[in-house]
Amino acid sequence: MVSYHDLRHRTIPNAIPLLAIIAALVAHGMAAGTAGTMLSLEGCAVGFAITIGLYVFNLMGAGDVKLFAAAAAIVGYGHVLLAWKGTVLAGGLLAFIALIWSISRKTEIPTIPYGIAIANGSLASVLFWSTI
């Protein structure tokens, strides 16, 4: 849902990351009590810290920062860097596709809706690479 919305409208509604963070805190809390909630909260804080600098230098939108903080809350503190690696790789793939598109159509390189990379890269990294 967030990928579609970011692609179509180039925005990420605040409700999506907010609800994801709340759901992550509740789920981690139910699974592991206070320690689980803290793991999720720490993940959220680290995810925010990783991306806020990119926002400050206008390399990432505010919605992307909030979305990665939400993804980090979902995966928890222990998997934040893994999720970031997946996000960066997915973003690189999107950039390559945008480059090929612009060359084939002889147009400017389009902006990249990074919400797609965040949602899919962080999910894929945790699902597939956490066992490697």
Detailed description of the structure:
The longest helix is centred in the N-terminal third of the chain and has 42 residues, at 15-56. The protein has 132 residues and is an all-alpha fold. The chain starts with a helix and ends with a helix. Helices cover 80% and strands 0% of the residues. It has 5 helices and no strands. Helix 1 runs antiparallel to helix 5. It has one domain (2-129).
State the total count of DSSP E strands. 0
Net shape: elongated
What structural category characterises the helix and strand content? Answer: mainly alpha
Mean pLDDT over the residues: 93
Order of helices and strands: HHHHH
- Give the biggest sheet: none
What is the helix content? Answer: over 70%
Radius of gyration: 15 Å
Tell me the distance between the termini: 28 Å
The number of helical runs is: 5
Number of domains: 1
Strand content is under 5%
Please supply descriptive tags for the structure shown above.
single chain; 132 residues; mainly alpha; 5 helices; 80% helix; 0% strand; elongated
